[in-house]
Write a structure and sequence with these properties.
The chain is built from 8 helices and 3 strands; from the N terminus they run βααααααααββ. The N and C termini lie close together (6 Å).
Length: 253
């Protein structure tokens, strides 16, 4: 099976059928002139080169496609001409970031509520305290119980000074447990963020690999289309009165 691209180049007026008999060439002379003319050479080089250059320009760099998708999943596939698969990575990216934001907002809200609860029910001064302090507040009824445990463990460096704003006293163990549950719930939200962050990273890498594959497949399709391109030239029109050159661009498959 063959496909053809055909174009005709008109000859000079000396080849016109209505030229005076004295200046007309024989059919053999005409054919020889046509097939040895610069037009034939151009057909063999210029047109084929132009078509192949156009094919080369339509190729996609797999490495560049991968970089695009590492930055924004789906964009590498769009560059490679396969957004039908890239769109799923782009949609997944949006959903993952929305999930991440939801965990961040909810985790901060629960943590802030827990610390306000501790300030109201245990006299905790939250300003300037690290997360470990609030872990200890949730595990001990008051500062004295905590300090006694650290002294028994022979870790006096971890003792809190109530006079420096590190004191607390829960009204009941139920209040301490309520605070502890709130704090743990907020920490779970922040831990979930880590899993979502890992999923975002995996989505970027998977999209980059898929984009590179799409670019390679695209280039392979372009190569198959061009194949072993051949260009030939022949006389067009009535053999007794040729009108021009027929240039044929063909590929067998």
């Amino acid at each position: 099976m063959r496909w053809l691209f055909t174009g005709c180049l008109l000859l000079a007026t000396s080849l016109r059928a209505d030229s005076p008999p004295a200046v007309r060439h024989s059919l053999a002379d005409v054919r020889r002139e046509i097939l040895t003319s610069p037009f034939a050479a151009f057909a063999d080089t210029g047109i084929a080169a132009a078509v192949r250059a156009a094919g080369a320009e339509s190729r996609r760099a797999p490495g560049l496609a991968a970089v695009y998708s590492l930055v924004v999943p789906g964009m590498g596939e769009l560059y490679a001409g396969d957004f039908s698969s890239g769109k799923y990575f782009l949609v997944s990216e949006g959903l993952l970031w929305l999930t991440y934001a939801a965990f961040e907002i909810y985790g901060n809200a629960v943590r802030d509520d827990a610390r306000l609860y501790a300030a109201a029910n245990a006299g905790v001064i939250a300003s300037g305290k690290n997360d470990q302090f609030f872990v200890d507040v949730g595990n001990f009824l008051n500062t004295a119980d905590y300090n006694d445990k650290k002294l028994r463990d022979r870790t006096p460096s971890l003792v809190y000074d109530p006079a420096a704003g590190y004191g607390w006293q829960w009204g009941s163990d139920a209040q301490r447990q309520t605070f502890r549950d709130q704090r743990v719930r907020s920490e779970n939200m922040f831990n979930n963020e880590k899993f979502v962050g890992a999923a975002i990273l995996i989505n970027h890498v998977a999209s980059a690999i898929n984009a590179a594959r799409a670019a390679i497949a695209h280039n392979s399709a372009v190569s198959d289309l061009l194949g072993d391109l051949r260009v030939s030239a022949s006389v067009a029109g009535d053999p007794a009165a040729p009108r021009g050159i027929m240039i044929t661009l063909s590929r067998g498959f």
